[in-house]
Structures are given as structure tokens and as C-alpha cells.
Amino acid sequence: MSVIQIQNLTKYYGKTLALDGVDLEVEQGEVFGFIGPNGAGKTTTLRILLGLLRKNAGKVSVLGGDPWRDAVALHRRLAYVPGDVSLWPSLSGGEVIDLLGRLRGGVDQSRRDELVERFKFDPTKPCRTYSTGNRQKVALIAALVSDVELFILDEPTLGLDPLMEAVFRDCVAEVKRAGKTVLLSSHILAEVEALCDRISIINAGTIVESGTLAELRHLTRISVSVETAHPVTGLSEMPGVHNTRVDGTRAHFSVDAGAINRVMEHLTRFDVLVLTSAPPTLEDLFLRHYELQRGESAR
Ligand code: ATP
What we know:
It is built from ten helices and 13 strands. It is an alpha/beta fold. The strands form three sheets. A six-stranded mixed sheet has the order 5-6-7-3-8-9, sandwiched between helices. The protein has a four-stranded antiparallel sheet with strand order 11-12-10-13, covered by helices on one side. Helix 6 links the parallel strand 6 and strand 7. Helix 3 (93-103) runs parallel beside helix 5. It binds adenosine-5'-triphosphate.
């Protein structure tokens, strides 16, 4: 069952086209990663899903409802964490957690205490005194304490230290095990790589790639370093081979997933001594699109 369905979503800010026909589908029980360069349209998409912004065209459904029309009912069933959390300055962190939790149908006290402990959070201080990371903890605990079906997280770990980021990862894994759905927008690619079942990359208001990490990797190149007994020749002329650097008996290159077998056969003629290969990281995939955008805007 789809928890989020977006088809051909278009959004203008005045004359600026922020979303240009976005398609996205998030299934129940999955952690879905939403990544893209600054200004690509992530926050705009999430704000439309939350009913905070009105779309210009396209279809959007969240938990079977229309986020604009059914906002009140839907917000009892979902929790949202923004990347820049603003809080009521004179309330304590604990009061804000309870307030937000009650809006979503009540707070389980033992779960709240457990999260406060795990995030090493002091809930007694007024929110105006909290650092960015501590404000982020308030929003995260308030979200995680609620028994909702869907979590929409927009850069949720901005300002958290690595230890707390690890706690966040554990919490998301638990939420997933409980069958809940998570849409996670993040710039921390290691986080997305570790947590997400499927990923969409958005660039300039359009989804440019979607799939599991394994599927996305399949679309791209593997980097190979090889040391041979005899200097390799003819490598750069082979189809599917890119960025070849040959230095005596050492060669480095990248190769399309579909061309590996032929390239390996070719290399054995030069007597392979050492060979290492690395799959593209999510960062490689992301940078390719990022560079694409920079190239376009430089033109
Ligand atoms: P970031 O990673 O920097 O948060 P993002 O992917 O969330 O970026 P959006 O904030 O959705 O990107 O912005 C998408 C586009 O819409 C950008 O070109 C941005 O300049 C534009 N935009 C966003 N908000 C507004 C606004 N209120 N008025 C005008 N233009 C806007």
C-alpha cells in the first residue's frame, strides 16, 4: 500500500518553477530517502505533503487523504521534524514534547522518559536556552514519542553530534521494525545509505533517479585499480571504460556495470597481480547529479 503518492507535482513561487512534475511513491513500512542539492525542491515537496503549501498542479495523496483538504485528520496520523526547529521560548523542552505529543493523541510516559534518556536531553530548561542540537532533540523526541503511521523528517539531524546521530539511526530502525513509514530528506548521505530502503534524487524540481541503492548503483560505474605484470594497453578504447589513468604497470579506471566482464578478460592478458574495485557510493551518485546541475547553471 502506498502511504505517499505524488504524480506530476508542479509548484511555482511567483514565476520561479520550484517543482517541475515530481513523481514519488512511498510504500507502507519503508524508509524512503529524499536527497538533492540545495534548492532542488525537497522542502517544497515536503511542505506540500504537510498541507503547508498549496500545489499548482498534479496529484498528491498522504495516508489516503488530500494534505490540503484533510490537514487536521492527517496531522494526527503523522509527525514532522523540520531541520530548523523554532520553539516556544518560555516553555521547557519537556512541556513542548508533551504539548506536541498531545496534539498527536497523547504521550506514553515511559516511552518519553526512554527517549529523553537515550538522547541525553535535559527537558527542564526553557527552550530559549537550548542550542540548535537540543532544539532538534525536542522535535525528534516529540515526533518519536507519538504513535503515528508516518514520519516526515526534513534534515532531522542538523546540529546533532555523531553520538546523537547514532541514537537517531537506532530510533528510525525501530520505527521501521514497527511497520511505520519514514520519508527522510537528508544531506548526510551516510545516514541515507544506512537507513533507507529506497531513494529518490531530486534536481532542479525533477526526480532524476529513483530506486534501491543497489539499483541506483547498477546504473553507474565501478572504480577499479589494478596492478599487472605487464603494462596494460588498449583499455581506454574499450566501450564502457572511463577516466583511464595508466602509470606503468598500475592502472585506474571506472567501468560501467555492464562492461565489467569484457574488461576483466582484457586485463588477464597482462597478468593481474592485484585488483581492487569499489562500488559507487551514494556520494558518487549524488555528486554526478550535483555536477550536472552546476554545469547547466554555468551555461
Ligand atoms: P535545501 O537543500 O537548500 O533546503 P531544497 O531542496 O529544500 O533545498 P526548496 O527549499 O524546496 O529546495 O527550494 C526549491 C526552489 O524554490 C529553489 O529554487 C528556491 O529558491 C525556491 N523557493 C523556495 N521557497 C521559496 C519562496 N518562499 N519564495 C520563492 N522561491 C522559493
